[in-house]
């Protein structure tokens, strides 16, 4: 048998970084999905093929048998392949545990529309889709919350304890999510016409989080910026409930300014944010840890995407509407 599941990536509408200090944040699933196809093998080996996993400008076309010490098809540094494939190994372990099949082997094929390392939740989407596909392949159907929980365990292990539940919950459940500490819930929301700009780089989340912590320790008043982001998120929840997209855009603009104050924006992110605004977006901000990576704008028209695609700092510009559906079997 063969089973394919898919799961969406995500952007932060509001609240990254402040969420580390207990404020709420609002990640949203986007219509850019990772597809994972799984076939159970007759032996207990794991064979992983991945087309087009772009990491830091590399493309990994890994087509080896990890059990047999397989190698990537192209010259990609081993640590990068190992990091990407570590998620798959751990996801398969979760599926084996959930289905009580500790020696099950699989052929796994990953096909992702979400650039890796861009702050768009690609690893969570691969893990969520992988757990769902592998458990189904073994005859077990987990509910999306259990997939989210098991995917969080994977990220927690692979990232040495440095994972929040936001990415995995959002990818498994879909929609607009409110995260506060370990509490995740989905929120009612209007259609959100996201446009994403990606500068082709990725930055270390741990370093950026540590940078905010150092700034906060040196300048006590920076804590007020963190609180202001929390207040903005609470105001944003009301705008979501009212379906008030114009106010959501204005709040995104303010959120970007506050994130700049925390020192996590950068030239390419600012250039893309301004391009999207000049193109007519309702609002725009960086999404994720910052430094570089991606911005998200709200624009029902085509102006922001066009403006981004003409921006030298922007490597890729694309629409990705709010994904109402989380993990699903294809
Ligand atoms: C990174 O995607 C989001 C941060 O808030 C870190 C975290 O929540 O773990 C910057």
From TrEMBL:
A single Gene Ontology MF term assigned here is: ATP binding
A GO cellular component term found in this entry reads: cytosol
**Which classification does the entry list for the species?**
Archaea, Methanobacteriati, Methanobacteriota, Stenosarchaea group, Halobacteria
Q: Does the keyword Transmembrane apply?
A: no
Q: Which PROSITE patterns match?
A: GHMP_KINASES_ATP (PS00627)
Give the GHMP kinase C-terminal domain ranges. Answer: 238-299
Its pathway? Isoprenoid biosynthesis; isopentenyl diphosphate biosynthesis via mevalonate pathway; isopentenyl diphosphate from (R)-mevalonate: step 1/3
Q: Which positions does UniProt annotate for ATP binding?
A: 115-125
A GO BP entry: isopentenyl diphosphate biosynthetic process, mevalonate pathway
Nucleotide-binding as a keyword of this entry, yes or no, is yes
PANTHER family (UniProt xref): MEVALONATE KINASE
Record's family?
Answer: Belongs to the GHMP kinase family. Mevalonate kinase subfamily.
Its annotated function is as follows: Catalyzes the phosphorylation of (R)-mevalonate (MVA) to (R)-mevalonate 5-phosphate (MVAP). Functions in the mevalonate (MVA) pathway leading to isopentenyl diphosphate (IPP), a key precursor for the biosynthesis of isoprenoid compounds such as archaeal membrane lipids.
Q: Which UniProt keywords apply?
A: ATP-binding, Cytoplasm, Isoprene biosynthesis, Kinase, Lipid biosynthesis, Lipid metabolism, Magnesium, Nucleotide-binding, Transferase
Q: Which reaction does it catalyse?
A: (R)-mevalonate + ATP = (R)-5-phosphomevalonate + ADP + H(+)
Subunit description: Homodimer.
Matching InterPro entries: Galactokinase, GalKase_N, GHMP_kinase_C_dom, GHMP_kinase_C_sf, GHMP_kinase_N_dom, GHMP_knse_ATP-bd_CS, Mev_gal_kin, Mevalonate_kinase_arc
Q: Which Gene3D superfamilies match?
A: 3.30.230.10, GHMP kinase, C-terminal domain
What are the names of the required cofactors? Mg(2+)
Protein location: Cytoplasm
Question: Could you name the domain of life of the organism this protein comes from?
Answer: Archaea
Q: Identify the catalytic residues.
A: 167 (proton acceptor)
The protein's enzyme class: transferase
GHMP kinase N-terminal domain location is: 87-175
Taking every annotated instance into account, which residue ranges of this chain make up the domain Galactokinase N-terminal? 5-39
Q: What protein name is recorded for this chain?
A: Mevalonate kinase
What EC identifiers does the entry list? Answer: 2.7.1.36
């Amino acid at each position: 048998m063969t089973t394919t599941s898919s799961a969406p990536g995500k952007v932060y509408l509001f609240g990254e970084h402040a969420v580390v200090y207990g404020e709420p944040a609002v990640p949203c699933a986007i219509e850019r999905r990772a597809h994972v196809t799984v076939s159970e093998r007759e032996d207990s080996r794991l064979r992983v093929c991945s087309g087009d996993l772009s990491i830091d400008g590399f493309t990994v076309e890994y087509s080896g048998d990890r059990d047999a010490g397989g190698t990537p098809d192209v010259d990609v540094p081993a640590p990068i392949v190992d990091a990407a494939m570590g998620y798959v190994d751990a996801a398969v372990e979760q599926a084996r545990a959930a289905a009580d099949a500790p020696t099950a082997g699989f052929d796994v094929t990953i096909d992702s529309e979400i650039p890796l390392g861009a702050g768009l939740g690609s690893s969570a989407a691969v893990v969520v889709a992988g757990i769902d596909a592998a458990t189904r392949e073994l005859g077990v159907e987990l509910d999306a919350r259990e997939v989210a929980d098991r995917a969080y365990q994977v990220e927690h292990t692979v990232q040495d304890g440095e994972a929040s539940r936001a990415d995995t919950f959002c990818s498994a459940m879909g929609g607009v999510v409110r995260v506060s500490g370990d509490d995740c819930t989905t929120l009612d929301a209007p259609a959100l016409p996201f446009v994403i700009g990606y500068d082709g780089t990725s930055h270390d989340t741990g370093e950026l989080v540590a940078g905010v912590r150092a700034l906060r320790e040196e300048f006590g008043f920076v804590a007020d910026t963190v609180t202001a982001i929390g207040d903005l998120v609470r105001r944003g929840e009301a705008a979501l409930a009212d379906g008030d997209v114009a106010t959501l855009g204005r709040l995104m603009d303010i959120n970007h300014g506050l994130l700049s104050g925390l020192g996590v924006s950068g030239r390419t992110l600012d250039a893309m944010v301004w391009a999207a605004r000049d193109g007519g977006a309702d609002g725009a901000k960086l999404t994720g840890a910052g430094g570089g990576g991606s911005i998200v704008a709200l624009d029902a028209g085509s102006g922001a995407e066009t403006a981004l695609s003409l921006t030298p700092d922007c490597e890729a510009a694309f629409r990705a509407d709010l994904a109402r559906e989380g993990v699903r079997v294809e």
